[in-house]
Amino acid sequence: MTSDSFSSLPISSAQIANLDSLGYKQMTAIQAQGLPHVLEGKDLIAKAKTGSGKTATFGIGLLERINPRFFGAQALVLCPTRELADQVGKELRKLARSTPNIKLVLLCGGKPFAAQKGSLEHGAHIIVGTPGRIQDHLSRGTLTLAGVQTLVLDEADRMLDMGFADVINEIIEQTPKTRQTLLFSATYPGTIKKMCASILNDPVTVSVESEH
Ligand code: ADP
Ligand code: MG
Questions:
Q1: Where's the motif Q motif (predicted)?
Q2: Using a 6 Å CB cutoff, which residues line ligand 1?
Q3: Residue range 36-58: average pLDDT?
Q4: pLDDT at 211 over 80
C-alpha cells in the first residue's frame, strides 16, 4: 500500500470498497493533496486542470458528512454549465453508491422547472447545478440552503468569466456561515483571489499545475 492509496484516508470502509469496485486504485495528485484537508473540514482552494479527478476530491468529502435521515440540501455544487453539472452529477452518483439512500438533484437551466420542484419536494441531500437556475429556485422558495454543510464552486474561473459573480454571492449568502467551502479553479486571476478572500475561511491552497 502506498500513501496514495484511498485506504490511508479516514473514510468509511464502504467507500473504500466502492472506490475499489470503480477501479480507482490510487489517488490522483489533487486527491492525494486535497482530500486529507477536505476530510478534516478545512476550506480549500484547489488549482487543477480538467481530468485531474477534482470531483472525487470534493465528492468523497461531502458524502462522508451527509446524514441520509435529514431531508434537506446538505451539499451544494455550483458549476458553470449544464454539461459540466451533468458530468459532476454522474461522478457523484458513482461515488454515492457506497452510501445508501442519498438523493442528488440536478438544477440546471433549459430543463423544466416544475419537474425540478417536484424532485426537491421529495427531499434532496445533494444539489448540483448552475447558478442561474439555483437562484431561480431560491427566489421562488422551492429550495432552501439553511442545511448546507459543504459548498463547492467547481470551475470557479469559468463561472466568473460567464458573469455569475453576483448571483454566486447571493446564493452563498443563503448558506450557513459555518459551512465548509471548497473552490476549484484552473486559473487564479485577481477576480478569483477576491472571491476567495470573501467566501473562504482560513483556506488551505493546493496546486497540481505541474501535472502532465
Ligand atoms: P476533473 O473534474 O478534474 O476534470 P473528474 O473528476 O471528472 O476530473 O475525473 C476525470 C475522470 O477520472 C473521471 O472519469 C473519473 O471517473 C476518473 N477518476 C477520478 N479519480 C480517479 C482515480 N483516483 N483513479 C482512477 N480514475 C479516476
Ligand atoms: Mg470537473
A1: 4-32
A2: 24, 26-28, 31, 48, 50-56, 87, 91
A3: 97
A4: no
The CATH number of the domain holding residue 66 is 3.40.50.300
The answer to whether residue 9 sits within a structural domain is no
Per-residue pLDDT band at 1 (split at 50, 70, 90) = very low
- With respect to residue 194, please indicate whether it lies within any of the assigned structural domains: yes
Give domain status of residue 22, yes or no: no
CA 131, distance to chain mean position in Å, is 13
Number of domains in the chain: 1
- The CA 59 to ligand 2 mean position distance, Å, reads 11
pLDDT of residue 210: 62
Per the domain annotation, does 101 fall within a domain?
yes
Q: pTM for the full model?
A: 0.97
